[in-house]
Amino acid sequence: MTMSPGPSGPATVTGRPGMGVGASVLRPDGTLKVTGEFAFSSDLWMDGMLWGATLRSPHSRARIRAVNIAGALRLPGVAAVLTHDDVPGRKTFGLDAADQPVLAADEVRYQGEPVVIVAADHPETARRAVAAITVDYDVLTPVTNAEAALQPGADAVHPGGNLVRHVRIRRGDPHVHADIVVSGEYEVGMQDQAFLGPESGLAVRSAPARTCPSRSTRACSRCTPAAR
Question: What is the mean pLDDT of the chain?
Fold first, then answer.
C-alpha cells in the first residue's frame, strides 16, 4: 500500500491490484486446513516432551474430603502428579475476578473442574495415571438459580458471596411513553466460537527460567518466568 499527495487536495491511497474491500482474498491457511496438513497446537511435537492429562470433577458441587495420588505415582513413565498444594504463587485466576482456582482445593463448584494434573512420557500413560487417582467427594446440592443465589441465607458459591459485582446503569428518561412497550425476561445460552483445533497447548523451556507456550487461543502467547 502506498500513499501519495493529490494534485490539489488530500492524499490518495492505493493498494495492490485485486486487494481491498470486496476482493476475494486467498487465505494463507485455507489450503492447509482443507487438506488436513495444517498443524494445530495438538499436532506440535518436541523430542522428550511430556504429555498432560487432567482429573476433573464428575460433580457439579462437592467438598473434597481426600485425594489419593499414590496409584498414579507408581506407574512407570509418570513424571509428576500435581494438586492444589503444588501450585506456586497465587492459586486463583479470572477475568472479572480472580476467584477461579487453578486446581480445586477444598471444594469443586462445577462439573469438569480440574482437581489433579498429570505429566507423563506418553498420552496413554497420562490417562492411565488419571484413572488411578481416587478422590473422596462429599456431594452437595449445586446453586443453579441466579436470583435464588442472591437471597438471604442462600448457599455461598465462593467465600465472598454470590454477587460478583453490581454495575448500575442509568441512561435516558425512564418515564418516556411509546405506542408499543415490550418487557420481559430473556435468557441466552453460552456462546463459543467453535474453532477447528482442539483446546491444547505446548510449553517449551527456552531461555533460563523462561517458558514459551504455543496454544489454541485468540490471545497472544508470550514467554513467562518458569515456576521453580
Answer: 85
